[in-house]
Amino acid sequence: MRSHFWNRSAALLAVTAMAACGGGDGGSSEAADDAGEAAPAAAAVDPSTVGTISGMANFGGMVPTMEAIDMAAEADCAAGYGADGPMAQNVLVSDGGLANVFVYLSEGVSGAPAASGAAALDQVNCRYTPHVLGVQSGQDIEISNSDNLLHNINATPTENRGFNISQPRAGITSTQRFQVAEVMVPVRCDVHGWMQAYIGVVDHPYFAVTGADGSYSIANVPAGDYTMTAWHEEFGTMTANVTVTAGETAMASFDYNGEMTGAEVPMGDALVLEHGTNRIRVERTQ
After folding, report:
1. Distance in angstroms (rounded) separating the CA atoms of residues 246 and 231
2. CB 140 within 8 A of CB 163
3. Which of 50, 172, 248, 266 suits 145 as a labelling partner, its CA being 20 to 30 A distant?
4. Rounded alpha-carbon distances, angstroms, from residue 120 to 128, 129, 221
5. In terms of DSSP bridges, do strands 254-257 and 50-60 run parallel, antiparallel, or are they unpaired?
6. Which residues contact 274 (CB under 8 A, 6 or more apart)?
7. Average pLDDT, integer, range 179-203
């Protein structure tokens, strides 16, 4: 069964206007500090009561042809991709498995431990790595620049505070966080228009992103009945019911195909923080 939904908040107009557009070396964590403290940890989960959810994002039919990315203006980045050059990442299929699908428990979770450690988003050869990232609300996100050239990171959520920060050289790291659940937060670099990433924010640690072969696994899930949602940037959302038994692995897979291209992808109208001006504009989603 497929489920489409839109997540918007007009109240964010007032909240987002408070966010400062970053400058300088982008190494400050001021935006994260202003967003408030991370959510307090819930009680630890008893290991004897948890199981695992594993599965696949499958893809059937003809795989859409991805567009080549013209990085001629950034020769150092282009050199990192060999003779074939860089390609878009919106549909990556290998042996019938679909990568970059964000899978998470969307119903049935009651209480959850806080995230341990920070998530990482890097900029390598003028592309975001990873292309799709999952985090827990309140979890630190360490955003780094591995390219010795200017990038800016423009995150445009609808339920959280956005940010637009500069990282003009390699080795810079900025720490950010999102305080409430939101699937998805789009991220882009205004300097290099092809650079896009997506961050899925949920209020628990029971999520995963499918790997190159389409597989995923979510460990330490308390026994119980859940609804899972799978999100893909081109094919929208799919849901599945899953029952987790302590000490066992439950299977839940999702079947995509090329006919789903152009589905309504859950993301509200982006409130774009324009770098260097602090102006806000609404950018309509398709």
Report:
1. 26
2. no
3. 266
4. 10, 8, 23
5. parallel
6. 21, 164, 280, 281
7. 96
Percent of the chain with pLDDT over 90: 67
Burial of 183 (0-12, 13-18, 19+ CB in 10 A): buried
Count the residues in the chain: 286
- The pLDDT value recorded for residue 44 is 62
102-107 vs 236-244, strand pairing mode: unpaired
Higher pLDDT, 9 or 119: 119
Of 172, 78, 74, 166, give the one whose Cα is nearest residue 122. 172
Residue 114 — very low, low, confident or very high, per pLDDT cuts 50/70/90?
confident
- Give the burial class of 61: count Cβ atoms within 10 A of its Cβ; 0-12 exposed, 13-18 middle, 19 or more buried: exposed
SS3 per residue for the chain: CECCCCCCCCCHHHHHCCCCECCCCCCCCHHHHHCCCCCCCCCCCCHHHEEEEEEEEEEECCCCCCCECCCCCCHHHHHHHCCCCCECCCCCEECCEECCCEEEEEECCCCCCCCCCCEEEEEECCEEECCEEEEECCCCEEEEECCCCCEEEEECCCCCCCEEEEECCCCCEEEECCCCCEEEEEEECCCCCCCEEEEEEECCCCEEECCCCCEEEEEEEECEEEEEEEEECCCEEEEEEEEECCCCEEECCEEEEHHHCCCCCCCCCEEEECCCCCCEEEECCC
Strands 163-167 and 151-155: antiparallel
Q: Which two tokens stand for residue 39?
A: 């959510």
What local confidence, expressed as pLDDT, does residue 171 receive? 95
As a whole number, the mean pLDDT across the chain is: 82
